[in-house]
Amino acid sequence: MLVLALSASLSPGPAAAQETLQFMAAGNNINIINLLQEELLPAFEREFGVRVEFSAVSWAERTDRLALLVASGLTPDVIGTAYYSPHEEGAQGLFLPLGPYLEEWEYTDSIPAPLWLTQTWRGEVYVVPFEIDMRGYAYNKSVFAEAGYDPDSPPQSWTELVEYARRLTRLSPDQDAVEVRGIGLWGPAGEFMSFMHQAGTPPVDLESFRSNFDRPAAVEAAEVWAELLRASRYELGGPNAGVAVGAVAMESTTPGSFAGYLDQVGGDLPTLSSELGVFYPRKDRESDPVALAFVNGLAIARTSKNPDLAWELIKYLMRDEVQQRIHETAGWMPPRVELASQFVTNPLLPAAYDAVQYLIAAQLPPPRNVSQNELDAWLYRVLRSEVPPEEAMLAVHDLWSRLLAEWGAAVSK
Questions:
Q1: CB-based contact 179:239 (threshold 8 Å)
Q2: Rounded to an integer, what distance in angstroms lies between the CA atom of residue 274 and that of residue 290?
Q3: Which of 3.30.70.20, 2.60.120.260, 3.40.190.10, 1.10.260.40 is the CATH number of 20-134+293-361?
Q4: pLDDT digit string (tens) for 44-64?
Q5: What are phi and psi of 346, to 5 degrees?
Q6: Positions of E strands within 4-77
Q7: pTM > 0.85
Q8: Are 280 and 161 in contact (CB under 8 A)?
Q9: Concatenated DSSP letters for 366-390?
Q10: Into which CATH architecture does domain 135-291 fall?
């Protein structure tokens, strides 16, 4: 019995439970999801001897899924964030402040300060930028030249932007369809926010929870947005193709649009690089341009049981070779600027990196579906001349003031 007891005490017991990280990613396409599941996360697991439980959610389901997990006490360790996350979820105490980690991280200074600012709430950085959706305008140089414009001199003011859009719009012989659209805009709320910033006034003041839609800049932004669409004959049908093939003279773009442009020209990179220009809009030549950005990233849950290991996963995803694989797969703009010269072949990126100094975060009061949809609806009424822009902006101001007050009260609890 003594021998059996000693033998039992010296025998190895059940293997120690393997550490597990929960990682919820959001808004990724199937190519990035496959890359993470089949290559990147397995490599991390092998290196660190851990298991990563990965889940991918769409942007549409992200907010509800995250709220359910938090309420159930199952908050993921690493959370894929959206542009609104720092000032919504960070302000609510969901994320761990990253300051202590960033002080020791070798690549903190490789990410430009304006990018860090988009991931900050009241002095605390809550998110590492991962995907930079930075809005500017791409334009077709041949279409510019055919209309008599200098192909290397895009519009530098609102007046020029409207003039170019009108002159570059070409109609069919019977005038009932658009053959070349002067400008293609990606969405009312986003374009409007950019124009407000160009006019020198942000749509909201997050420190005071105040709407600025009662300011002259809001009316000016609504007017120029509507005038651009009217100049491009928005009411007429037109081509389905875009700026890469000259069906649209100018259109809203992001660095991630490049893959689609390359497909349009059959993979002909030299032709695309010579035909495509990029600029960031400004109110006038004396004003700074504005690069409105929707920056998505990676955060650590404040309730994570292993925040240090969660930080190791974020650092791993920001490594040179990992960022290269992500860029090759998704075409994203790497947040670490020194990587651009190492492996970036996207001709949209040089102008984007030059414009990072003018980067401004997009901000909408929660609930975003309400604030954005109502803004869109009022802008479309302005476009159709159903209401004057002053009336529309005051209506949005009343709504956003209420939403901001409710949000401010929730944050202060």
A1: yes
A2: 24
A3: 3.40.190.10
A4: 999 999 999 999 999 999 999
A5: -85, 115
A6: 20-26, 51-57
A7: yes
A8: no
A9: SSHHHHHHHHHHHHHHHHTTSS-HH
A10: 3-Layer(aba) Sandwich (3.40)
